[in-house]
Amino acid sequence: MPELRFDNQVVVITGAGAGLGKAYATFFASRGAKVVVNDLGGSGKGEGRSSKVADVVVAEIIAAGGKAVANYDSVEDGARIIQTAIDTFGRIDVLINNAGILRDVSFKNMTDKDWDLIMAVHVRGTYKCTKAAWHHFKRQKYGRIINTSSASGLFGNFGQTNYCAAKLGLVGFTKTLALEGKKYNILANVLAPGAGSRLTATVMPPEIVKSMDPNWVVPIVAILVHGSNMQETGSIFEAAAGHFSKIRWERSEGALMNPREGFTPGAVLRNWSKIVNFEEGVEHPKGVSDSMGNLERAMILSENVAGEELRFDGKVVLV
Ligand code: NAI
Q1: Is 312 helix (H, G, I), strand (E, B) or coil?
Q2: Is the CB of 97 under 6 A from ligand 1?
């Protein structure tokens, strides 16, 4: 069976000195890519710095016959990271925004520093690296981006208001990059991974950490950033413990209010069971324009308050 190869491709991976980033770096190098191994080398809480972790990964890749260069900048200095790719390998094809830290604390005890550092690394760091790569991608009409979210961001998690806000923020960021990048063949997707690592060792029992190999997350990232992926963009994928899935939004059919009933809390409450019902009539909106159907119906209703029966898309909307 032929391998999925990345020969002559330049892949930049942030936070590639450990955990998931290291797994990506060694994989892409083993499949022919030239890899920028970025890692600030600080603590899991974002303190200190060291060149060691990035150097170790680069040495491993070179010893295995691959090509890699280390970069020790913080993702907040994204331009320097991308410049390392340009100076060393002359281009950039793939950007995997993966660097991350945790500063878990209940909201009551959260300090501005806990909030700001998480935003700086996850949101601003992802923005700065992407911003620096974007004009290269646009000029060459090719680019593949993975931004790293988290189940915590998608669903919320105790003690992580800062991290969850940042991680869900990256979903909106990526979905918009996907819209703006499509015509330049720049595709951007979100990954919510699960793997045993220094970060998860602080929140998961040791046997679970051991059984979730970061290498098991790699295949879906490889598929999404490969040149053969021409369509999948703006999507959210989960990958953990050998399970891969896609996440999407779901909207209840809801209730279209009758202006004659009045837009009062009481009128909304009378329709509550319809508003929160996901058993039937659900939609899976893909963009802001998918809300326009309701807007049109609302306009018809407001123009025809006196009408006895109105139809929209063949359905009676007001009787
Ligand atoms: P890890 O701690 O093993 O690796 C993260 C790496 O990022 C570290 O080597 C660290 O030095 C580096 N880093 C941190 N701040 C940096 C900065 N400002 N600039 C450059 N490098 C920096 O963590 P893990 O688990 O591999 O996490 C990777 C990503 O996946 C993170 O974004 C994390 O939030 C996310 N994630 C991980 C999950 C898991 O189950 N491991 C679950 C959900 C999300």
Answers
A1: strand
A2: no
Q: Using an 8 Å Cβ cutoff, are 76 and 50 in contact? A: no
Q: Is 161's C-beta closer than 6 angstroms to any atom of ligand 1? A: no
Collapsed DSSP state (helix, strand, coil) of residue 244: strand
CA 95 to centroid of ligand 1, rounded, Å: 15
**Host H or E run for residue 315:** strand 315-318
The larger pLDDT score, comparing residue 306 to residue 189, is at 189
Longest CA–CA span in the chain (Å) reads 79
227, burial (CB in 10 Å: exposed 0-12, middle 13-18, buried 19+): middle
Which of 151-155, 259-263, 295-299 bottoms out in mean pLDDT, i.e. has the lowest? 295-299
| Summary mean pLDDT of the chain | 93
Please report where in the chains the tokens 């009045």 appear, as a residue.
262
Read off the tokens for 300.
């018809």
Mean pLDDT in residue range 191-195? 98
Please give the full DSSP string across 226-240, using - where no structure is assigned.
STT--S--S-EEEEE
**Ligand 1 pocket: which of 154, 199, 200, 213 to mutate (most atoms <8 Å of CB)?**
199
Which domains occur in the chain, in start order?
10-247 (3.40.50.720), 259-318 (no CATH)
pTM for the model: 0.93
Q: What is the ipTM of this complex?
A: 0.99
Catalytic residues: 163
Ligand 1 centroid–CA 104 distance in Å is 14
3-state SS assignment for residue 81: helix
Contact 245, 190 (CB under 8 A): no
The Cα 129–Cα 120 span in angstroms is 12
